[in-house]
Structure prediction request, 164 residues.
Amino acid sequence: MKKRPEFLALLSLAVFFAILRPCSMSAQEHSVEAAKKATSTLIVHYTGLRNKEGKILTGMARKAEGFPRDVDQHFSWLKADARDGVLSVQIEGLPYGPCALTCLDDENCNGDIDMFLGIPKEGWGFSKNPSCGLSAPDFEDCKFEIDQPVQEIEIKLNYVRKGK
Prediction:
């Protein structure tokens, strides 16, 4: 007769844990899902601008394949708000993970980098500001991790010719 209350207590515990287990799994799955959906605001400071004419065109790549010509996202900003050679912009809603940025100071707003004898006439830059030789840097040279709710980077614009 005493076995019956012990059995009921064990049964109650088993039912309690059976109910609790899916709840804890659901919370765990929710936190993993929330981490996957976490987004960041990236603040980019473009420095070294030589004037306020035109736009800054920026491409964001998430993988090495095709970088720097083939990018996943495109952004552009008018340079009219630049102050003392610096334009600061925000890109919101970016998922966490690796990325690399490439940018062009499109002074005449034609959407292309203007060249003279194969030499760029307009400014260019990359995230992490790698040194550029005779070719564009690799993805790995420009890659950084978006891993904070708000993150700031600086991209220094390079010009072959100093004046316009």
Observations:
- Residues 56 and 80 are 10 Å apart (CA to CA).
- Residues 3-37 form the longest helix (35 residues).
